[in-house]
């Protein structure tokens, strides 16, 4: 059995399961809501994440993006269009293909600047969108470099769906969510955090409180780039030992 035939078999098994279908619908709705909410902010001309300091690396990016005029509005329009296409059954795959590069960019940006605001949501939204793309594998499989000569052009899903709950799949999904949560909390040694107080709090009880104060001052007061701030943090000495 070739790769294409194996993927067809796995895809058919998934689409024949009632719970997997419910999960796909749930993802379509939740992803659509996420982009409609954030897209409308841009269409209305409001700055995204208003409460975030303009000196924060992500804050600097969002302020600059807000000042791009109609490009900022364009991003919002694309997000809303992608969301609406996800809701309509006939256009799900088109919506997912538009949605994916946008959420991938948000995910990469969030982790590049260590932004806690979307460190948890963006990777899960990206994986959810990828799931929807794979869910519609039968519609896009011919662009993949596999031999499709023996593959059926139309995969027929049985009218009566399998009601067996896919325990392994949902346990794997839960494990991914937990892993993302843990990484968003403990994945970075230091992070800018959303404000000066929270930034300094991560160094409390360590021997790097002074170095941490330098890092947080560079980020939240001076507005220095993240890499420069981390270099100054690394060069700063540890706190002096307190003699008892």
UniProtKB/TrEMBL annotation:
TM region positions: 21-41, 61-85, 92-113, 119-137, 169-191
Keyword terms, alphabetized: Membrane, Transmembrane, Transmembrane helix
Protein known as: DoxX family protein
Gene source species: Dyadobacter psychrotolerans
């Amino acid at each position: 059995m070739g790769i294409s035939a194996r993927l067809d078999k796995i895809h058919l098994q998934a689409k024949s399961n009632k719970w997997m279908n419910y999960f796909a619908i749930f993802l379509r709705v939740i992803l659509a809501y996420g982009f409609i909410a954030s897209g409308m902010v841009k269409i209305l001309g409001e700055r995204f994440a208003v409460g975030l300091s303009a000196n924060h690396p992500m804050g600097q990016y969002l302020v600059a993006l807000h000042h791009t005029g109609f490009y900022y509005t364009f991003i919002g329009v694309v997000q809303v269009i992608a969301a609406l296409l996800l809701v309509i059954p006939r256009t799900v795959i088109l919506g997912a293909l538009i949605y994916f590069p946008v959420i991938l960019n948000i995910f990469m940006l969030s982790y590049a600047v260590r932004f806690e605001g979307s460190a948890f949501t963006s990777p899960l939204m990206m994986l959810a969108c990828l799931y929807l793309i794979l869910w519609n594998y039968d519609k896009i499989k011919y662009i993949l470099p596999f031999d499709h000569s023996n593959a059926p052009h139309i995969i027929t899903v049985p009218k009566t769906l399998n009601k067996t709950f896919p325990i392994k799949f949902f346990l794997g999904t839960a494990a991914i969510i937990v892993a993302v949560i843990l990484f968003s909390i403990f994945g970075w040694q230091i992070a800018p955090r959303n404000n000066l107080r929270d930034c300094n709090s991560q160094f409390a009880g360590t021997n790097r409180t002074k170095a941490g104060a330098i890092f947080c001052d560079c980020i939240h007061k001076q507005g220095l780039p993240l890499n420069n701030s981390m270099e100054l943090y690394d060069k700063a000495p540890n706190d002096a030992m307190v003699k008892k």
